[in-house]
Sequence to fold (735 residues):
Amino acid sequence: MKAACWMGAHRVVVQEVPDPKIINPRDAVVRITSTAICGSDLHLYDGYMPTMEKGDVLGHEFMGEVVEVGPGASSTLRVGDRVVVPFPIACGACLPCERDLYSLCENSNPNAAMAEKVFGFPTAGIFGYSHLTGGYAGGQAQYARVPFADIGPLKIESDLSDEQVLFLSDILPTGYMGAEMCDIEAGDVVAVWGAGAVGQFAVASAFLLGAERVIAIDRFPYRLEMARTNTGAEVINYEDTDVNQALKEMTGGRGPDACIDAVGMEAHHGTGVIQAYDRVKQAVRLETERPHALRQAITSCRNGGVVSVIGVYGGFVDKFPMGSVMNRSITIRSGQCHVQRYMRPLLERIERGEIDPTFIVTHRLGLDEAPAGYETFKHKEDDCVKMILDPSA
Amino acid sequence: MSVPHDGQAVRLAQGLGWLSIALGISQLASPKTANRLVGVQPTRVNRDLMRLVGVRELVAGIGILSRRQPSGFLWARVGGDAMDLALLGNAVASQRDTHRDTRRTGAAAAAVAAVAALDVVAARRSVATGQAPEGNTMEARTAAITINAPSETVYASWRDFEGLPTFMYHLESVQPTGDGRSHWVAKAPGGTTIEWDAEVTDDIPGERIAWRSVEGASVRNEGSVRFADAPGGQGTEVSVELAYSPPGGAVGSLVAKLFGEEPGQGGAVGSLVAKLFGEEPGQQISDDLRRFKQLVETGEIARSEGSPWGSRAKNAAHQKDAHPREDGEIRAAIDEEQGVGP
Fold:
């Protein structure tokens, strides 16, 4: 089959690899009908995520048709089922899984000892996302092996299109969880850093959960325009506006009740000096992140507010404003999304027409064009927000 | 986790390690002052010499503090003491003509001699604890994990000894032989095996199992596993303790040679047992417990394309690239870990 493989920083090659097969009893094999490039894939593309190996198949947002089912998954899944696959691999049996904390599954990461050294305790396996999260082949391919297939994949039995349900695999639940962690109450103002795909869904979800106003912060006018027209957000372009000051003014001097960081480890812009400081330290691996959005989210948040972190971080941040967090009673909540918890309720919201996730799709390419897709996406060329790949094309 | 053997010896070695580092830093920082203190003219050659001695002290100090078995670095310190005494002797000889600072140099030599005596004591004790004769010391390792299942279930899974090799990769087979005894076969490098008979010494359903090798085993060993309800009914805490003693006598020499090491040459118990199974035993038990938990909770061992052998810390450094493989290749990778030894 064809698969998009990571071959080093800024190098993705679509090449022939063997078809995946059942390895464990609870595995299934899925023929992929739609897959996507995630903003978090760009951290791998840029080489900032440790423990990648040349040849790793990328991709953790995919859906398709079940073509083979192991004996341990056959009670819930049949050949021919149409499924969306959640990006965290989770067993469903350990304590975190029982508590709906699927991205913290204790059994799905064979490289748990490696993750333990970096994070203190290991986290779940993830498709196509470095060896720290298990070394699983990803879904930017024509087929994928899906472990614990009896509990992960969500069956789609209605006639919704791929584009309407594909994002249940990651970014829609991720944006939703970002908003849910804000404990939004009527009248709340929520600010969202990053108006990429996840940020767009965080904005939409904050409104769904009852926020009165949502403010999107980015530097690309086309992304801010997307948030304004599709979700009704107010916007700040941080390239021409002092964000802290603007947020204060927009909230009567008090600050937003909750701030969502939908940017993560490669934040683009700070003041010139801070940006240069972070870039240099990240380049020589003295810190693994450029956490400017997170710093700003913390210092902008109102006293006693919530900072919700859904942008991906991989290691250690520098110049972290802990004094602001502690003295102002800020609550920080975060996590890789527990996708399995949100898939069904969000599918129902899609079916009821409460949210239509297709508005973020700007590019549709064949799998063969994945290398060009990564370049376009990375450089935000051609007003790119979300890129869908068709493995059959 | 390693169970410490001789606290006093460890403290002495650590004290000497810190002394080395302190000396090294001051010698490097101001070789001139250091030369004057020991009554030696701070000429350029002497200053360079003092810097070299400083580097040597730093290396020895770091070596002693960072090693579980620092005996090599402690003996290196003894060698360094001899070198220092020779240098100081040389200094005294050259001072005879000038009669300058002989008293300072003599005091320095006396101090070096006193520290040398301590170094010899520490080095000898370090070796003594490292190479205890069979019967005196067992190197114990512990690890624990919480499994989301009732203690009776977890106990029953462990008590089925024949199933242990499924998750304990260093074992090839365990066969019950009756009377609470069993025959254990473990893998050793080069496709060889080590075998012994063991007997169950304690067996309380849902609570504890203990076993030990019977008289005459080539690798004397014992182990126990305790099952305790986790707080709040959140599963079962499983705590394992395994202890091995090194093979002694002729067998010991044979085993040592097998691993390319001269018997009695710096090979401490820990490192010998580690080599026996190809990795650090503490890590190995943690890996075993992870796989045991996976089997009990999910019915399978998690395998990825990058880690087809499943949880195994020693393979972190040589992952396969994560793309699908032909059937045979996955099977071979699994067999490599489970079938042919470490």
Q: What stands out?
A: Chain A touches chain B through 45 residues (CB under 8 Å).
